[in-house]
Amino acid sequence: MDIPEQARILRIFIGESDKSDGRPLYEAIVLKAREMHLAGATVLRGAIGFGHSSRLHTMNMLRLSDDLPLVVEIVDGEAAIDAFLPLLDQLMTGGLVTVETVEVRRYGPSKQD
Question: Which of 5, 11, 75, 86 has the CA that lies 20 to 30 A from 96?
Fold first, then answer.
C-alpha cells in the first residue's frame, strides 16, 4: 500500500471510557480503519487533559482517572480520509476531530527487511 506524498492526518480526541456499541470507541475506530484498508492507525494515551467540559482527566496517583484522554491518529491520502469521515461520524457521539495536510517522508518496511 502506498500513501501519497501529500496526505492527510486525521486526529480524533476522545476519552478512554467512550464507547461505541459496548466496545471501547478507540478500538472501534481502529478496527473500522483497518476494515477500510487505511494505511494505519495509532492510539496515544495522554497523561493529562481536558476537553469541552473542562473536567481534568489525569493519571496522577492521588486522582487516578478512569477516563484518560486518547488521541487516535490515522494518516492516508485525502480520498481515503474523506471516505472514512462519514463512518467515523456514525461511531462517535462527542469528542474532537481534526484533519491536517501532511508530507509523508517514509512509509513501509525498513530497508533491512
Answer: 5
